[in-house]
Design brief:
The chain has a domain of about 55 residues: Orthogonal Bundle (434 Repressor (Amino-terminal Domain)), CATH 1.10.260.40. The longest helix has 13 residues. It has about 160 residues and is an all-alpha fold.
């Protein structure tokens, strides 16, 4: 029995393998570490989960270089007022004018508020619809359509 008494005094410790990195990231592992009072470090990656590689550096550099001089030109308030007065003179709403020139009502609203970027195609449509010049030196003047170039000679000479 001496061998049996000695076996009671011996202690055998069975250790588990160290957990893998992916297992350490699981919520179970984090909760277990919190219960044990271990230190937990969390960090957020800048473009985690996105297919962007070096975008952060480029945007930061652009912001650093940006000054007051870099801004988009918008339609002037004089043109905005001309559009608004011309539309009201014809008795149209912004929506009516927008459907007439095949644009969204928001576009007309932006033009009338002076916030729109100057688009020559839209300005040309507005000029034709409202019948007033919105570009050039003579803004606000009635639009003169050159009809002579579009018509063909009506008479034939007969011999």
């Amino acid at each position: 029995m001496a061998t049996g008494a000695e076996s009671w005094d011996e202690v055998t410790i069975i250790r588990k393998r160290a957990p893998k990195a992916s297992q350490m990231k699981s919520t179970q592992a984090i909760n277990a570490a919190q219960r044990q009072g271990l230190e937990i470090e969390t960090s957020k990656k800048f473009t985690a989960g996105q297919n962007k590689q070096h975008v952060g550096d480029k945007n930061t550099a652009k912001l650093d270089r940006e000054t007051e001089e870099l801004h988009h030109e918008t339609v002037g308030l004089d043109v905005a007022r001309l559009i608004q007065q011309g539309r009201q003179a014809k008795g149209m709403t912004q929506k009516d004018l927008a459907t007439k020139i095949s644009e969204k009502p928001q576009i007309i609203n932006e033009f009338e508020n002076g916030k729109a970027l100057p688009n020559q195609a839209i300005l040309a449509k507005l000029e034709r619809t409202l019948g007033i010049k919105l570009r050039g030196k003579d803004k606000g003047q009635p639009l003169v359509v050159a009809s002579g170039a579009a018509t063909a000679p009506a008479t034939k000479s007969s011999k």
